[in-house]
Amino acid sequence: MTLKAAEAASRIGWRIRSRIPYTPSPFRRTVIHQRFRASSRAHSRPTQVPFCPLTRRPAGHARRLSDVAAGKPLGSAARAARRTGADSSLFTGAIQYPKAVLYCARHTRVQRQALPTDRRLHRRREHSARPVGLPMHTQHPYILGTLSTGESVPMLQVDRRRHMAVLGQTGTGKTGLLLNLMRADLMGGAGFCFLDPHGDAAREIAALAPPEFRRNLIYLDPSDPTHVFGYNPLADIPEAERATTAANIVSAFKNIWGHSWGPNLEYILSNALRLLLDTRDQTLLGIPRLLADDSYREWLVKRCADPVVRQFWSQQFASWDARQRAEKTASVENKVGILLANPFLRSILCQNASTLDLARIMNEGKVLILNLSKGNLGTEPAHLLGALLVSGISQTAEARRNIPEAERRDFTLYVDEFQNFATDSFASILSEARKWRLSLVAVTQHVAQLSEPLQHAVFGNVGTIVAFRVGAQDAPMLAAELGLQNHRALRETNNFHAWLRLMRDGSPNQARLIQTLPPLPPGRRFNQMVALAHARYMLPRPLVEARIGAFFPATEPKRPRRKRRRDPDNRHRRPAKPGSPPFNSGLSAQ
């Protein structure tokens, strides 16, 4: 291993290049700044060889180099290995952070250049070298609960890829099971997304995030009064996926207004979305405007690449008179206008650029927690936003077909009350998302809340079923799915107990009664997660509203500029008011 001294920065580097002798500053703050800026790192694989800082004594530095070459742990890691009696191999790698003083003002120039710069290297102390909280392997088991004999019931990641359905009445323990599963994902470094239509569980799991994983956790609240994140479903869509994107958005709208949906509404809305997708920097605000503004619609048609869509707007729509346009577009304008009138939903969906990158979240194993509280957002806006996000995650997972299967990272989608966000994308996730490494954990209270096609999609594709206490209407159906002879067992199950049919190695096991894990203690880091989200993924709400307001044309025409007289004597003077004498006349107003 060789140490490569980085070029000294700031004033130290300037003195070295100018051959001016270095005089240490008497102020400790300046010394610490120089310690961080002038540095060197061991250029080797961080998982095998740790950082090797210099010490005060050359003999100590040489001894540390020999320890690194021999594969021995350093500093506080060595003390932790002796104290715990654990294998020293657990303490090798980039987790070695010696506790010794790393800087002395009387070091030589080469030593100053070789001091480490990474601030995190200095901040982490002895707790970083303990064997607690080390990253788990992707195949580590998830403990779902315990049997009556006290034996734990594990579930492997390969079995989770066949999805899981959790059913039960309110207060039976569904949320506790979800929190324990998500906590295991957090500790294992696995990525997931959680859509919570109530808000309490979202705040609780965000507060439980360990400090070392808080950078990978994104907590977003659409009803935040001061900041707002951006998710534009029309932004940066490849040309080959625009038709699918338009169909997914139409399906999300149809999920909300299925009782008043018609073919004419779907036809016009689909063509409007296709027209907006072919032009950059467009949002859902363009739908009502293109229906009413002829110049804006013509500007979009010129940039449309699809000949069928272009023919609809330039010929068929243009042939309608004012009365026909009003009749056929009224339903589209009413439904889209009602949703966009909600300030929370408008500020999220109508930004030109998205601050939420779903592809990066899934491929890098980040955690996305969305508080879709219906009490703050409203029922229909919360359902639409959740349905659009589910469609976006499904489409992002399908885009992984260009990534080799061995490099696809597992990602789990947790959806509470999933019947509210169920679109055609749910059937696609249940049937095809397994090969894209997208797992689904769907939670609902009653089977009757699901439509008949959705029931067939769920029970026909879900591998693991967890059934808490259910009502008399759902018990016979679930008993047939679980293979139970008496459906009364499902109606008399105690709280925090559930019947589990586990998928193991591609085949379902016999249903067994388990006791779920106890609830987690409350966390204390919720405010930190909110502050991080404000700084990294959200914008001030007044700024976003101002940008959205600039999209609409001015309601009043601009006043023409007044032409100034070319008389050189009066060129820079204001015109006199009516009834007042000239400025230089020497007269005063009567």
Mean model confidence by pLDDT:
77
Helix content: 40-55%
Taken together, the total number of domains comes to: 3
Described by strand count, sense and barrel closure, the largest sheet is: 11 strands, mixed
Number of strands: 17
The CATH fourth-level homologous superfamily of the largest domain: P-loop containing nucleotide triphosphate hydrolases
So what's the CATH class of the largest domain? Answer: Alpha Beta
Reconstruct the topology from this structure.
Layout lengths: L2 E3 L4 H9 L9 H10 L2 E3 L15 H12 L5 H10 L24 H5 L5 H5 L18 E5 L5 E4 L1 H4 L3 E4 L6 H15 L2 E6 L3 H8 L9 E4 L6 E2 L13 H15 L6 H15 L8 H7 L1 H9 L4 H13 L2 H19 L2 H7 L8 H6 L3 E5 L2 H4 L1 H20 L12 E6 L7 H9 L5 E7 L7 H10 L2 E4 L7 H8 L5 H4 L5 E5 L1 E2 L2 E2 L3 E5 L9 H11 L2 E2 H9 L41
Explain what you see.
With 590 residues, the chain is of the alpha/beta class. It has 3 domains: 3-129, no CATH class; 153-231 and 356-464 and 524-535, P-loop containing nucleotide triphosphate hydrolases (Rossmann fold, 3-Layer(aba) Sandwich); 239-347. Helix content is 41%, strand content 12%. It contains 25 helices and 17 strands. An 11-stranded mixed sheet has the order 4-3-16-13-12-5-11-10-6-9-7, with helices on both faces. Strands 1-2 form a two-stranded antiparallel ribbon. Strands 8-17 form a two-stranded antiparallel sheet. Helix 10 packs across helix 11 and helix 11 (263-277) crosses helix 15 (322-340).
